[in-house]
Design a protein that fits this description.
Elements (H helix, E strand, L loop, with lengths): L8 E4 L8 E7 L4 E4 L4 E6 L10 E6 L2 E2 L3 E5 L4 E3 L1 E5 L5 E5 L9
Length: 105
Amino acid sequence: MKRLRKGDQVIVVSGKDKGRQGTVLKVTDDDRVLVEAINMVKKHTKPNPMQGIEGGIVEKEMPLHISNVMLFNPVANKGDRVGFKVLEDGRKVRYFKSNGEVVDV
């Protein structure tokens, strides 16, 4: 089980976008996350009329390392560390380390 999942609200803790929040769009196997509207770069693309791609400069998101983001805790209104625990019914869930509140319901 991973600490971050697709759809989680995260906050960037280091880098050029420090302090910004976004939603996780994708988690890759090499410990990188793609966050919505974070780590934007300008990419120069060649036109390809066969696929309908226009040429020019395109802005897109690039992945961040998972250590540079933290799961956003809406109760504390800041980034928080994540732990795992097993509930009485046998389910393994994520919880916030600061207040013990369960992330997954």
